[in-house]
Write a structure and sequence with these properties.
Layout lengths: L1 E5 L11 H13 L3 E5 L12 E4 L2 E4 L1 H12 L9 H27 L3 H11 L5 H22 L6 H19 L12 H14 L6 H6 L3 H14 L11
Parallel strand pairs: 1-2
Antiparallel strand pairs: 1-3, 3-4
Helix pairs in contact: 1-7, 3-5, 3-6, 3-7, 7-9
Keywords: Transferase
GO molecular function: transferase activity
Organism: Methylomonas denitrificans
Length: 241
């Protein structure tokens, strides 16, 4: 059976990591059995979570893992997509994982002392107090460097949040009138969208992007529907905390 290595759960959502939530959602949407091993990124192959172990192999990076899962266990989520829809899915994935994700990371790791305190407690809850503070500080500096390397971390906060608001508006427009990003059937890109959006809408970290996203009822309903369907043991997410 697949072993999924990820952060401990927090905030009544699948995971405080967007990519851990994405991968576990994919596994559940695709009906692939797995077990969870809670860990921290210091123990991960590339210093990041999630990663999996399966049939003697260790694989990291959610994109690589999902491609492997599709090859080994079948592609039940995306096999119905047209070439045009596959192109759309890739574009949405890039918006979610290469842009909106970084806006959310700025909100958690750099925007305000209270946001940082909440994020640190959730991410590093598995470590004893003195060690948790030290490791969290190291990772915060690392994330700051990644934000600057991406480019978004060089902008004023107002500009960062305006860019994030545009991402959210695009997602809201795409979902209006349909159940999932590419129509009435879920596909793998919905696992990515849910992983990012649930961590924006239902985590206790504040930002102008979150405030705007909470006014988009179509996004709230989308996240609620996916969580209740695929993570019924968690119950309904708490939005706006």
């Amino acid at each position: 059976m697949i072993t999924l290595h990820q952060f401990p759960r927090a905030w009544n959502i699948p995971n405080p990591s967007q990519f851990c939530a994405k991968l576990e959602t994919y596994l559940r949407m695709a009906g692939i059995e797995y077990r969870i091993a809670e860990t921290l990124p210091i123990y991960a192959p590339f210093g990041k979570l999630p990663f999996i172990q399966d049939n003697g192999q260790t694989l990291a990076d959610s994109r690589v893992i999902i491609r492997y899962l599709q090859q080994q266990y079948g592609d039940s989520l995306d096999e119905h997509l047209s070439a045009e829809q596959c192109a759309q899915a890739l574009a949405w994935q890039r918006l979610l994982e290469e842009h909106l994700y970084w806006v959310c990371m700025y909100s958690r790791w750099q925007y305000g002392a209270e946001n940082w305190r909440i994020n640190k407690r959730a991410i590093f809850q598995g470590l004893p107090h003195p060690l948790a503070d030290m490791v969290a500080g190291i990772y915060r500096l690392r994330i700051r460097g990644q934000l600057r390397g991406h480019g978004i971390g060089r902008l004023p906060a107002a500009d960062i949040f305006e860019l994030g608001r545009r991402d959210v508006a695009a997602l809201s427009a795409a979902l209006r009138g349909q159940a999932f990003l590419l129509g009435e059937r879920p596909s793998s890109v919905d696992a990515s969208a849910y992983g990012v959006l649930i961590n924006l809408l239902a985590c206790p970290v504040s930002s102008p992007v979150k405030d705007y996203a909470l006014t988009q009822e179509v996004l709230v309903d989308y996240c609620r529907r996916i969580q209740l369907r695929h993570f019924p043991e968690l119950g309904e997410p708490t939005f706006g905390v």
